[in-house]
Write a structure and sequence with these properties.
By secondary structure, the protein is of the alpha+beta class. The chain has one domain. The protein has five helices and seven strands, in the order H-H-E-E-H-H-E-H-E-E-E-E.
Length: 179
């Protein structure tokens, strides 16, 4: 009698473990749009909300914004928690600045286990107005973005955000967000 209870309990444990392992990835947004250029992604960012309420009332990345993000960013979060981005202006960036941003990206990505750093890396710097929900004013930001192609078109895989003062210079009092 004791052996049969142990066998049943062990069998139930194995079945439950198998069912949990077979679960689907429905919680991870599956890309549907293929972007060929960084300009297409910037256009998508400027013309859509970035965060929205889900059915539970939680803030989540919108479907339009999720289309712009790499799988890593869709899982871990984007570091961009603005409702909207407006007045996007692409900035000129020197090769030295591009290499510094790439180096920072590769350094951050190399710390992740089981993460393959992409070969085809594009760096874009923008200035824009960002809007948080429930705020009446916008913030000026400089955002450096690293774009890669994961096989589903170009996506954003790294973001570095800087607050700008009224003169368009980096606000030294505020820290930047990276990720």
């Amino acid at each position: 009698m004791k052996k049969s209870k142990i066998v049943v309990a062990l069998g139930a444990f194995v079945v439950m473990t198998a069912l949990l392992c077979i679960g689907t990835n429905d919680k991870i947004y599956k890309k549907q749009v293929h972007f060929n250029t960084t300009d297409e992604i910037l256009n998508q960012l400027e013309n859509n909300k970035l965060i929205v309420f889900n059915e539970k009332g939680d803030w989540v990345a919108s479907k339009q914004f999720s289309e712009c993000l790499s799988l890593r960013k869709r899982i871990a979060g984007s570091a961009m928690d603005y409702e909207t981005i407006n007045n996007i202006e692409k900035q000129d960036i020197t090769e030295e600045e591009k290499e510094e941003i790439k180096k920072d990206y590769i350094n951050q990505a190399s710390k992740l286990s089981n993460y393959k750093i992409q070969d085809n890396i594009d760096v874009v710097r923008i200035k824009c107005d960002t809007h948080y929900l429930r705020w009446d004013h916008s913030n000026k930001q400089r955002i450096d973005m690293v774009f890669v192609d994961e096989g589903e078109g170009k996506v954003i895989d790294y973001i570095c955000i800087w607050d700008l003062d009224d003169n368009g210079e980096i606000n030294k009092e505020n820290n930047n967000d990276k990720g």
